[in-house]
Amino acid sequence: RGIIHRDLKPANVKITPEGKVKVLDFGLAKALAGDAANDDPSNSPTLSLAATMHGVILGTAAYMSPEQARGKAVDKRTDIWAFGCVLYELLTGKQTFHGEDVTDILAAVVRAEPDWQALPEATPLQVRSLLRRCLQKDRSVRLRDAGDARIEIQEAVSAPVTAAAATTDPATKGWRERLAWVVSAVLLFSTIGLGAAAFYLFRVPTDVVPTRFFISPPEKGIFDSGSAGAGFAAGVISPDGRRLAFTARDALGKILIWVRPLDTLAPQALQGTDDAALPFWSPDSRSIGFFAQGKLKRIDVAGGPPQTLCNAPNGRGGTWNRDGLILFAPDIRSPLFRVASAGGEPVAVTKLPAQLAFHRFPSFLPDGHHFLYFQTSGSSEASAVYVGSLDSNESKRLLGADTDALFSVPGELLFVRQGTLLRQSFDPKQLQLSGDPAPVAEEVASGAGVTLGGWGPFSVSENGVLAYRNGPGNTGDLQLAWFDRAGKPIEKFGKPGTYRGVDVSPDGMRIAVHRHDGKGGDIWLFESARRTMSRFTFDASQDNSAPIWSPDESRIAFSSVRNGKWGIYQKSANGTGEEELLVESDQPKVPMCWSPDGKSIVYLVYGRNTNTDQWVLPLAGDRKPIPFLQSPFRQTHPQISSDGKWIAYSSDETGRYEIYVQRFPSGEGKWQISTGGGMFPKWRRDGKELFYMETLSLGKMFSVKVNPAGPTFEYGDPTELFDSGYVELGHVGLNYHTYAVSPDGQRFLIPRPVSTGAAEAASAPITVVLNWAAGLKK
Predict the structure, then answer these.
(1) Contact between 127 and 156 (Cβ < 8 Å)
(2) CATH 1.10.510.10 is held by the domain 3-202
(3) Which residues contact 108 (CB under 8 A, 6 or more apart)?
């Protein structure tokens, strides 16, 4: 029984002054344990307890075998490959595989062929054949034994050379001498015994360190930036640590899932994954689950069309165990459900609490039975990581965090607080934390608001490969600012803060805005003439939010939570007088717009199911609310035109949000305005132009010309104006007005991150850390 050297290279082959050949540096050597050619995750080079066993991609890049570069199990044929590289270099004077950096070299090892034309003309056929057999990328057809190589080289060295050859190629003598040295090295290498193997197998390494590198977006593409800056494109590492999946836009703007094997340079798009979000891996690393077109789907990485598993109107995370169960959040406001990985009828697993809170972003623990998930709530104190079980709908709170949490070997929980990726010791059997949190990475992005809240932009494999993205977190302040129609900043106003919901008065001179404080929030008013900001409501615990101006600017309506009930109130815009309750119930409700005559308010009602409905509240008479749009779909952000004839809104009835217009108040007729996704419609004051954002994840502002005087609704094609750099403002299911438009349609009021915009974050690379746990303090 011999050993595998794993780092055979010219620097480790030495000739003593006496002419003896020695093979040095067995620091990476491994005892021979049979073929071990399987691809079990335990053979991955990043599963680390000892570096000589696993933990990093061991060896020197230019002399690694393809299987070694890929992180697969190695056997004696790995050293045969390295021997072929050394022999080639001895004969040609240059490396067999080369590149500008390690990544390029590894890519050449895996894919490229040596330059066979570089071999000296006098190289014997036996040696040429030997080289090709040693450098077979498929190790099943590679030369198996160093002793065979020694025999072939000895035959080539001892073969007679014709006089013509000797005179026409003066290098003949040189290659014969070099081959003689190689014979000595091969002879030595093929006779190393078991004693040395035992020594190197059981020695304890001291130089294991994490290895970091970066993965950029596809060529001519960008990561799917998402409305929280870094979006849903953080990258999801496969359980075996060999591939990274992420969502990105191609050169044509189409969102697809891309898969990047870590041993290659370029990712490959998975066709059929259009508009995909939140991919997650199967436990065998062969398939990917994802959400698209209002469905939960799966696709095999090797190829083939996607398979639809069940409905998921607005999926918020999934996880897959070895028993073939997928645990997922089908919607923004829902508990967790489970469904067979082959598809079927989903079954609820968790139970929502009495207060308004929702479950999302689950991840199975190693037993495949217990799982972690994030509970998002209107209060940052109530938003936390919980642990649940498939056998019970009872859950246990683990810790407060800004994101979901993931378990990682050797026993750590990873999560984000205030932009820092932290780890804390965790026992997955006892479901207990211990010790204090410690930082892993700084300035890590995270999701915010109802759309992305609780989402953590990191993933970790079963063998300790970590991936994450840097970017603005959900604690970053926003700056209120005006932009022109080209997206150029005009002016900033007010201090940076956590603003959620803005509305501009009909004359364009005053702005009402909700400012969040972590526990709730109040409404503030900004006056352009005096450039002052003053408080309008005075009890942040009531979560006073979603302000909208009356057409005559005399009143402001807003949402508020008091005594456990959601209500819509109105108050004089000059701050005097009492707040008047207009309507209240147990269901969340948000005022969206006034009718032009000021006689009614259109508002949204949120139920425990998946729909969002529109109601009209008369402000005279008995004030009994009237349903306007009710359906199984979400129909949000209604806005009435200035002449009162039309109402624009967004609906997800096609599987993604689009902009629609109907007659008001009859609801007759229906026109779809957008075709590539649309949210947040806004009318110009004269009703001749309609604005909207393309999607939550991109935030491009569009304009549509409208003829309000026609007998039917007449409109033109959407025209892109600029990238808004939109940031999600809502929380806990509430849709506020995320931007405002000046009465003349020439300026746009958009809260923007102080640190960076979505477009900049979309180009930020994904950081991959091999053997991340090696950096932990013992």
Answers:
(1) yes
(2) yes
(3) 97, 98, 99
**574: CB partners within 8 A, 6+ apart:** none
211-474+762-775 has the same fold as 3-202: no
For residues 404 and 365, what is the distance between their CA atoms, to the nearest angstrom? 13
For residue 507, how many other CB atoms are within 10 A of its CB?
11
Q: How far is CA 354 from the centre of its chain?
A: 31
- 338 HSE (CA, 13 A, CB side): 21
Identity (one letter) of the amino acid at 135?
L
Beta strand 489-497 with 478-483: parallel, antiparallel or unpaired? antiparallel
- Per-residue model confidence as pLDDT tens digits over 657-681: 899 999 999 999 999 999 888 989 9
List the one residue out of 549, 494, 533 whose CA is nearest residue 741.
Answer: 549
How is residue 20 written in tokens?
């003896």
Distance of alpha carbon 430 from alpha carbon 424, whole angstroms:
15
* Whole-angstrom distance, CA of residue 74 vs CA of residue 68: 6
Contacts made by residues 616-625, CB under 8 angstroms, sequence distance 24+: 616/665, 617/568, 617/582, 617/583, 619/582, 623/582, 623/583, 625/583
* Structure tokens, 140: 């099943």
Q: Which residue has the tokens 């060529």?
A: 219
Task: Answer for the pair 511, 533: CB distance below 8 angstroms, yes or no.
Answer: no
Cross-strand partners of 328: 318, 337
The answer to whether 440 touches 772, Cβ cutoff 8 Å, is: yes
Cβ count near 636 (within 10 Å): 22
Q: How many CB atoms lie within 10 A of CB 668?
A: 8
Domain ranges of the chain: 3-202, 211-474+762-775, 483-754
How does residue 634 score in pLDDT terms, banded at 50, 70 and 90?
confident
**β partners of residue 460:** 466
Instruction: Provide the pLDDT for residue 33.
Output: 40
pLDDT band with cut points at 50, 70 and 90 for residue 430: very high
CA distance 321 to 342: 13
Per-residue pLDDT of 70-99, as tens digits, reads 777 778 888 899 889 988 888 888 889 988
Helix, strand, or coil here: 197?
helix
Whether residue 192 contacts residue 2, with contact meaning beta carbons closer than 8 Å, is answered with: yes
CATH superfamily of the 483-754 domain = TolB, C-terminal domain (2.120.10.30)
Per 3-state DSSP, the chain is made up of helix, strand and coil in percentages (nearest 5) of 15, 35, 50
List pLDDT tens digits, range 342-388: 999 999 999 988 666 789 999 999 999 999 999 987 555 568 999 99
Provide the phi-psi class of 71: left if phi over 0, else alpha when psi is between -120 and 50, else beta. Answer: left
Looking at residue 465, its amino acid is V
526 to each of 205, 491, 530, how far by Cα in Å?
63, 14, 9
pTM above threshold 0.90: no
Cβ atoms of residues 616 and 579 within 8 Å: no
Distances (CA, A) of 247 to 20, 216, 269, 415, 550: 57, 12, 9, 21, 42
Q: Which amino acid is at 439?
A: P
Q: What whole-number distance in Å separates Cα of residue 451 and Cα of residue 500?
A: 13
Would you call 572 helix, strand, or coil by DSSP? strand
Instruction: Give the pLDDT confidence of 201-244 residue by residue, as tens digits.
Output: 333 344 556 788 888 888 877 777 544 333 455 789 999 999 99
The H-assigned helical ranges of 580-636 are: none
Distance CA 73, CA 474 (A): 42
Domain with residues 211-474+762-775, CATH architecture:
6 Propeller (2.120)
Distance (Å, whole) CA 350 – CA 170: 80
Cα atoms in the 13 Å half-sphere on the side-chain side of 141: 8
Tokens matching residue 365: 């623990």
Is pLDDT of 160 > 60? no
Contact 33, 449 (CB under 8 A): no
Q: Which residues contact 174 (CB under 8 A, 6 or more apart)?
A: none
Q: Which of 20-29, 161-170, 299-308 has the lowest mean pLDDT?
A: 161-170
